[in-house]
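Thread: Newbie trying to understand structure tokens

Hi all, I'm a second-year student working on a class project, and my supervisor (Dr. K.) asked me to get a predicted structure for one chain before our next meeting. I've only ever worked with sequences, so writing a 3D structure as a token string is new to me. If someone could post the tokens and maybe explain what I'm looking at, I'd be very grateful. Here's the chain:
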Amino acid sequence: MNKIFSFLLAMLVFASGCQQTTKKDMNPFFSTYETPYQTPPFDLIKIEHYMPAFEMGMEEQVKEVDAIVNNKEAATFENTILAYDRSGELLNKVSSVFYNVQGSDSNDDIKEIARVITPKMTQHSDNISMNMGLFKRVKAVYDQREDLNLNEAQKRVTEKYYNDFVRNGAELSAQEQEQLKKFNSELSTLQLKFGENQLEETNSNFKLVIDNKEDLAGLPEGVITAAAETAKANKMDGKWVFTLQKPSLIPFLQYADNRDLREKIYRGYFMRGNNGDEFDNKEIIRKMAMIRSEKAKLLGFDTHAEYAISVNMAKTPENVDEFLMGLWKPALEVAKNELKEMQAIIDKEGGNFKLKSWDWWYYAEKLRKQKYDLDESEITPYFQLDNVRDGMFWVANKLYGINFKKVNDVQLYNPEVEVFKVEEANGDHIGLLYLDYHPRESKRPGAWQTSFREAITCDGQKTSPLVSIVCNFTKPTGDMPALLTFDEVSTLFHEFGHALHASFTNGDFKRTAGVVPQDYVELPSQIMENWAAEPEVMRHYAKHYKTGEVIPDHLIEKIQKSGHFNQGFVTVEYLAASLLDLNWHDLKAGEKVENSLDFEKAAMDKIGLIEEIIPRYRSTYFGHIFSSDYYAAGYYVYIWAAVLDSDAFDAFKQSGDIFNKDLARKFRKHCLSECGDDEGMVQYEKFRGQAPSLQPLLSKRGLN
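---
Reply by user tm_fold:
Sure, no problem. This is what the structure looks like when written as tokens:
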């Protein structure tokens, strides 16, 4: 997740450099951070500091807004739009720490604070976004924007704030606003509960415990060692424990010969939130979908999908559906052919069964070995985490001239985190990069980029960003360092792309600096994955963890040739989830969902999803769309942006130099630093010189 935020998150999470210094008690949030680079002093921040800081932060922003509303002078850009953009500094300060810690290093106390503060924050945001006095002044500036001698950046931020107010109900009647507040409060509570349930179901409520060594047949030694260490951590010495975290789950599905155990762990995975217990999410998602449809109607839209997509590059749900279905048909055909090839392996081996969903990874791995003589375990030893990290730093240096230097004087929220200083080629300071690699029970699943402080220019002084990448990668075990799968390598490069976007952002206003449409936001991240797979780059970072040998050309060639491998499955499971998301948010007000599972099944039957593949996220653990509003009706954005990233990288390839400095300069300027200056497609075409083509994506995935 990264930069495009609605009005709510823009005002509550963005941090700015124009911070007030308020000495009060010993609460670290009430004074300027006296730390290197003014980073959060995690050793001083205690549980008891959060609530007072939240309360005072909200109180201060209310006063700031009241001052704008009660100003007797006529509304101007400076006394209204700029004053509003700079309000809420203390609230931003505590929010940027608390919500990041909540996702990456939570505990019972953090969870309890979240339960208390979430409805308060929702109410606070609603009170501001529906403040008619504030809206009138914003509208006054908006109506006169062509006559006030504003520059383009000032006009744009004025328009964005005006539209935010309208989309957040400022033009509704008082009665309608009360109803909207009720919807927002209910949704925030349901989202919080969904996320808590997902965390419990992933990290705590299922473990595959093996006590018979024969049941480990087929598994690589590193996977077995990791399972033994997990067992030891769970006080089960002498056994092996596998969890639903991807670094544990996926290798088991790929390599374990025991089919019954593959089914057991995969069922544990796809039944999350669907076990009829206290962590069940079926009723939560049913309620959320219907509330969102009612909220959309209140705001003048037929569906939540229409409301959400109207501000994206795609503009309408119909455009998104047409786009996805155009990819669905060729991807499904490729997936069906993959299924036939794997079933042939089963039949040849004398297996008296039809392939099921829990068999796909296992037989896909066999098929890869058969077609490309490539075994994932053969290449993993070359992907030592530290080397991969240094490799992505090297790519950034080759493209943009920037450098990364490890620092040890920055306080950490968890001792597993490491921090790097980011500098321009001339030594100018850009910001800091926090890296948090491995799973722990206090961390939610997945990988994401976030920030403890956003880049913003205030009174000509640019605030340096504090950017963070959080992942759940394979841990080091015993004498073996952390070795990544190639999928994890791609994920690290992906999140690094988001981090570069956050680091390079340049702009004077929180509302627009670096902020892009949601279906643009994955362009900066996904384009970096292309470099991860380039032979020239791989030779730089892929070195055997024991011998230091650079990955041999024959393995690189195998990886390159297998680039189209399993792309039918990968694309179909993703598209299925995207279409499921659209179905949930295509409900109209008054339409009822009686049963969440029946609704999901009907949606998948409608598109003809084969039973051997399930959506990448089933509804009950689809955190992208149900633990927040961020990706609701927006999960499609990854593949929409994939068209952009494939087309953009094709420009580098066609130039004959994947590190083309002129293209890199233009990409940094138009697509990363100044991307919030205009609409997404306008900024992209400034870089590319033309509209994006679909062909590079189809070719990359072997779907054309």
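A couple of things are worth pointing out once you decode it. Residues 206-270 form one domain. The chain has 28 helices and nine strands. Feel free to ask follow-ups in this thread.
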